[in-house]
């Protein structure tokens, strides 16, 4: 029953770095938290509970509904419900509580529309920052909304290229590290820095792309350089978030 949802989600996760690409790594984050819970509570008795059916059955129904209506969020919720219900059914209430953080992180598998980037102000903010950067480099530029107009070409900071996927992925990493490190101040710090880090990385990426395109021709935007720059911005923010998470959280998650 999970297979149709998984097959339907795969194109969302692999279509490009600009949309939900971080979801490929979310199961690894959840697995890390599950291993951490196992290490901390190894030896605790298993006490299966039939109450697990109260979550497994609705979860399976959600999966069926998701397949019938092609509604991916329902499929993700159904799969998570089946996982939690199975833990309760096979391992018992205590182990289910221990594993709840790992299963909660799987909510970041939910595919979100790129249009939410506008709600965060990322397209306009990225365009403004890129305009400032280009002017600092003595490049003549005029901004109209999210469009950057240069003497010979015009560049748009679109919703897809505004960095929303970076925000979503960094939030998943921050929550995971926060749970592993058990430090609320560090968790809040990571979450608070995601937007400015994303903005800075996207401004640097957009400025570099415009500068290269002006020097080598606008066709450079249709080369792998465009995607590689997005990957670099994604990894840069993830690395900064991991660093802010602290050595303790990283060690507990990876050991």
Topology:
Layout: H1 2-14, H2 26-41, H3 53-69, H4 72-90, H5 93-105, H6 116-119, H7 122-136, E1 142-144, E2 147-149, E3 154-156, H8 164-181, H9 184-216, H10 224-245, H11 247-254
Antiparallel strand pairs: 1-2, 2-3
Short description:
The chain is mostly helical. Helix content is 70%, strand content 4%.
List keywords for this structure.
single chain; 255 residues; mainly alpha; 3-stranded antiparallel sheet; 3 strands; elongated
How would you sum up this structure, described in words?
The longest helix has 33 residues, at 184-216. By secondary structure, the protein is mainly alpha-helical. Helix 2 runs antiparallel to helix 5 and helix 8 (164-181) packs across helix 11. It has helices at residues 2-14, 26-41, 53-69, 72-90, 93-105, 116-119, 122-136, 164-181, 184-216, 224-245, 247-254; strands at 142-144, 147-149, 154-156. The chain is 70% helix and 4% strand. A 3-stranded antiparallel beta sheet has the order 1-2-3, covered by helices on one side. It has 11 helices and 3 strands.
């Amino acid at each position: 029953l999970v297979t149709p949802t998984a097959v339907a989600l795969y194109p969302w996760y692999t279509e490009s770095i600009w949309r939900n690409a971080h979801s490929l790594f979310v199961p690894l984050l959840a697995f890390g938290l599950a291993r951490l819970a196992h290490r901390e509570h190894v030896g605790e008795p298993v006490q299966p509970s039939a109450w697990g059916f109260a979550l497994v059955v609705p979860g399976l129904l959600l999966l069926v509904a998701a397949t019938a209506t092609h509604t991916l969020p329902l499929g993700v919720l159904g799969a998570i419900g089946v996982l939690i219900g199975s833990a309760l059914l096979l391992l018992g209430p205590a182990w289910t509580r221990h594993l709840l953080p790992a299963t909660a992180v799987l909510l970041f598998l939910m595919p979100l529309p790129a249009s939410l980037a506008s709600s965060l102000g990322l397209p306009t903010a990225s365009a403004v920052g890129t305009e400032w950067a280009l002017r600092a480099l003595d490049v003549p530029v005029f901004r109209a909304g999210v469009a950057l107009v240069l003497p010979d070409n015009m560049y748009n900071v679109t919703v897809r290229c505004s960095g929303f996927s970076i925000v979503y992925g960094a939030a998943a990493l921050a929550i995971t590290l926060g749970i592993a490190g058990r430090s609320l101040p560090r968790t809040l710090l990571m979450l608070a820095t995601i937007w400015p880090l994303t903005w800075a990385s996207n401004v640097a990426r957009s400025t570099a792309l415009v500068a290269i395109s002006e020097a080598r021709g606008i066709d450079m935007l249709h080369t792998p350089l465009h995607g590689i720059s997005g990957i670099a911005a994604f990894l840069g923010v993830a690395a900064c978030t991991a660093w802010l998470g602290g050595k303790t959280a990283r060690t507990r998650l990876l050991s």
